[in-house]
Amino acid sequence: MTSRIGVVTFPGSLDDHDARRAVERAGATAVSLWHADPDLHGVDAVILPGGFSYGDYLRCGAIARFAPVMTELIPAAAKGLPVLGICNGFQILCEAHLLPGALTRNRARRFINRDITISIENTASAWTGQYQQGQQISVVLKSGEGAYVADAETLAALDAGGLVLARYAAGNPNGSVCDIAGVTNEAGNVAGLMPHPEHAVDALTGPGDDGLGFFTSVLLHGVIAAGLA
Amino acid sequence: MTSYQVTRPAAQDTVAQARETPDRAQPFRELGLTAPEYDRVTALLGRRPTDAELAIYSVMWSEHCSYKSSRRHLKQFAEKAPQTGVLLAGIGHNAGVVDIGHGYAVTFKIESHNHPSFVEPFQGAATGVGGIVRDILAMGARPVAVMDALRFGPADAADTHRVLPGVVSGISFYGNCLGLPNIGGELAFDSCYAGNPLVNALCVGVLRPEDLKLAAATGPGNKVILFGSRTGPDGIGGASVLASASFGGGAGRAGGEGAKRPSVQVGDPFMEKLLVECCLELYRADLVVGIQDLGAAGVACATTELAAGGGTGMRVRLDAVPLRDSSLGPAEILMSESQERMMAIVAPGDEESFLQICARWDVQATVIGEVTDSGRLEMTWHGEQVVNIPPGSAADDGPVYDRPLRRPDSQDSLQADDPARLARPADGAQLRAALLAVLGSPDAADKKWVTEQYDCYVRGDTVLSAPHDAGVLRIDEQTGLGVALATDGNGRYCQLDPYAGTQLALSEAHRNVAVTGARPLAVTNCLNFGSPEDPAVMWQFAEAVRGLADGCLALGTPVTGGNVSFYNQTGGVAIHPTPVVGVLGVHDDVRRRVRTGFGAAGASVVLLGHTRPEFGGSLWAWVAHRHLGGLPPAVDFAAEQRLADALVTAAASGLLDSAHDLSDGGLAVALAEACLGGRTGCTVTLPGDPFTLLFSESAARAVVAVRPGAEQAFAGLCARGGVPAFVIGVTGGESLRVNDLEIPLRELAAAHQAPLPALFG
To answer: How distant is the Cα of B464 from the closest Cα of chain A, in angstroms?
Structure first.
């Protein structure tokens, strides 16, 4: 039996197609979840994909956070369901307070689409177990509001808990505080990442396949593996 | 449109009133119609038009919608079209559709949004993207990528710093929010575009041939459904007032154009994304009989074209159109260019399912009328008839002008001003300086400052994007079937010789597609010119169209559609004639695509094609001497075709590591870009006069790196195919070496990459 990974489509989601393809490439079954359907359909993990949910009106992720699907997702995440938010998905997780901090406009006030290198800082999360501590991988950054910010207390807690998932290596592209590219919660099941691992699963269409590890990691993660056994 | 008064619903001009008050003066001139055109409307209707009818004719008979000055010339595209059998829908539809085999069809088109982008750069460019995407969507296709061809005034001019960042962020905002990868395009600068930037947006879509949709209102009794955004006062008269007239004096100053700003529409890419997904679901459910996007001329255009296309009539209740501004009357509703709207023809039994799918996507949908068999387009406003016209009279039977054309006297002296007289680099140091100057000129410089603002990855099928010679998209994951697209244009060449210059643009786009390994298949075009009322401009236009039609016949690639943008002039000064030509090619397997940059070290560098001393209109002549004169490079379609055949065969056989087209800046720029693109240097030995070999812009040339071990096979292929091939060097090292000249890649990169960020921050 293969794992079933849900990918939520909000109005304005754009990388849902790519996230499903990455899930399938990792060997799992991708399940499309609809923003208006408050049912997770028994999936083993959920990805909130990139895009401009609800047109980014009000504030990125601020409206999506109240979508019917989130009323199920938020308690499920609290109980340990692996959740990965990529780009706009990361913004939604911050708005939903499943992750600390917030994402603000890039330092240069312009959208940035660029192949970048990040360093994996936490390999205990549900989504990064297949990487080595400090491993540098090539992924795609494409966002206008990707600068991570948090207050000093939160940053200290992130550091103390080893909750920074990844940092920008080889230069900070957008002004994120402490070069933070992604964070995870204390339980390690909820992760948010500004760059796009799903665009780096095939050298033909991306900078390489370094991003595939996020999707294979979750399949081998304890919660899912135990559920399938 | 400040001159057009907003009128209250109660005081509408009806058909009955038009009959009763035949002599009432009407503001036809303010709406862009001439007196003879107004008389023609009156004769056609047998009475004066109502205000609403006048609104319809003024926008539908505008240059932008009616092609009244260009139509006589454009018919050559059909008359001279090569018989390839790949065209499923051609000129006259929202976009051309080409069969690419394996059960797939592709639709693509390029369109201008020049005037709005000067008046309001961000929204003008954004809605340009939105408009072309809806054209593609209306054919029944999923839009899968966009490209844009841009021209601005001098890179260091103050107004360019207002226009360029706005245009780029508008394209970035709209395209990125829509989830369409931007896979390439062009960016060039010249003072002729200072008051008239060119913003040409291309979209490509994919469909199954059987799912092709047409803009035809068939089946009397079928419902007319307007869906998408509500209608507001934005863009009223955009087609007639903005796109079909020159800007006034005060060249280069936007301030004086403030009065035209309300004619620019405002875009909402989020609504467009919903509209795209909603339409695709409606198509899958087979609920659409006919469909048309609302672009220029809004409801006026959609209703007249749908009814004319179906050979039917239509009854429309204009008061049923959902409004954003309740003070709008029928004329404004008809002319509004509010974005993100579509109009569908739906069988009565499917109405409910149609509305349900729209509701699922939060897209407002309203039945505003029915198809009839009356042959009349009849519209009411709160029960009173305000429009009653034959739809074809507005959509198809507009005025056609045979504008006078005359080759300007100055053309001879321009062509006689031979660049052979220009001082050339005398030694290695000067050659080196010339190479760095050309490579660092705004036209040749790295465009990353622009392309980094565009998402090239979304949808996960982008195989190549900027700065590669062509964008390449995977269409079918199983077989690797894909397409390549390139757009090219060169205003300098066209200024010297519009016939040859247009053919060179076609040649270059053809070559750019072929270097990736794709077989060129079909053509789209965006023809950017000055005022058609100037005989010299009209001559340029006629020559360009003739050149493109003849060229497409020679290359066997039909024109599938396109767009004409006239009145690109401020005061009496027109832009260089700038036809932008887009070529679509097919990859049997995108995994065999060839990249622009050098790959591994140790590959032979081979120059393909003959190099002649051709510097007319060249980038070197412009950068080194600000010289524009002489004749552009010679066109040789037979050589282009042989080159393309060899490149496609070599790519399919896996013989090439890289391939790069030679164009602006010649071999010098091509070698530098190949080195920088692959972060691999090369050592090249050029026999004879290195200056000519480095900077000539002779057509039908490319530079390739041959895979080690494949040298003989490639040489044989070129010999059999009649393609001149000269082994000039080998890849490797950390610098570009040409004879005794050496430029470290670091220095090359600095010269190439620094200019745009330095200019635009």
So the answer is: 8
Contact A55/B at CB under 8 A: yes
Going by C-beta distance under 8 Å and a sequence separation of 6 or more, which residues neighbour residue B504? B490, B493, B632, B633, B635, B699
For the stretch B650-684, pLDDT in tens is 999 999 999 999 999 999 999 999 999 999 999 99
C-alpha to C-alpha distance for B473 and B487, rounded to whole angstroms: 15
Residue given tokens 């081979």 in the structure block: B606
Beta strands in B284-398 (DSSP E): 290-293, 313-317, 341-346, 365-372, 377-381, 384-389
**Given CA atoms B185, B190, B194, B196 in this order, what sign does their dihedral have?**
negative
Q: Which residues contact A173 (CB under 8 A, 6 or more apart)?
A: A106, A112, A114, A116, A141, A146
pLDDT tens column, B525-555:
999 999 999 999 999 999 999 999 999 999 9
From the number of C-beta atoms within 10 Å of its C-beta (0-12, 13-18, 19+), residue B80 rates as: middle
B630 CB neighbour count, 10 Å cutoff: 22
Residues B690, B671: Cα–Cα separation, whole Å: 13
Query: Using CB atoms within 10 A of its CB, is residue B420 exposed (0-12), middle (13-18) or buried (19+)?
Result: exposed
In the residue annotation, A153 being an active-site residue is answered as: no
Q: Give catalytic residues of B, as residue numbers.
A: 64, 113
Q: Before B577, cis peptide (omega within 30)?
A: no
Which pLDDT score, from 0 to 100, does residue A6 have? 98
Top-level class of domain B427-440+594-761: alpha beta
The answer to whether residues B400 and B587 touch, using CB atoms and an 8 Å cutoff, is: no
pLDDT at B422: 97
The CA-based diameter of chain A, rounded to the nearest angstrom, is 49
pLDDT digits (tens, 9 = 90+) for A114-164: 999 999 999 999 999 999 999 999 999 999 999 999 999 999 999 999 999
Separation CA B430–CA B646 (nearest Å): 35
User: Contact A14/B454, CB-based, under 8 Å?
Assistant: no
Nearest alpha carbon to residue B290 among B306, B276, B278: B306
Q: What's residue B90's pLDDT?
A: 76
Q: Are B301 and B138 in contact (CB under 8 A)?
A: no
Interior CA angle at B185 toward B658 and B167, to 5°? 150
Domain B12-79+213-245+253-397 CATH (choose: 3.30.1490.100, 3.90.230.10, 1.10.645.10, 3.90.650.10): 3.90.650.10
Rounded distance between C-alpha atoms, residue B584 and residue B147, angstroms: 12
Q: Which of residues 584-613 of B touch A (CB under 8 A)?
A: 590-591
Domain B427-440+594-761 in the same topology as domain B12-79+213-245+253-397: yes
Rounded CA separation A194/B589 (Å): 32
Query: Which residues lie across from A190 on neighbouring strands?
Result: A83
Closest CA to B57 of B358, B452, B334, B465: B334
Residue B555 CA to residue B522 CA, distance in Å, equals 10
Helix (H) or strand (E) holding B537: helix B535-555
Domain ranges of chain B: 12-79+213-245+253-397, 427-440+594-761
Q: Do A206 and B457 touch (CB under 8 A)?
A: yes
Radius of gyration, CA atoms only, chain A: 16
Asked if B266 contacts B231 with a C-beta cutoff of 8 angstroms, the reply is no
Q: How many residues does chain B have?
A: 761
Paired tokens of A71? 């009323």
Answer yes or no: A196 catalytic: yes
- Residue A229 clears pLDDT 70, i.e. is over it: no
Structural domains of chain A sorted by starting position, each given as residue range(s) with its CATH number in brackets = 4-228 (3.40.50.880)
Q: What is the pLDDT of residue B717?
A: 98
B269 touches chain A (CB under 8 A): yes
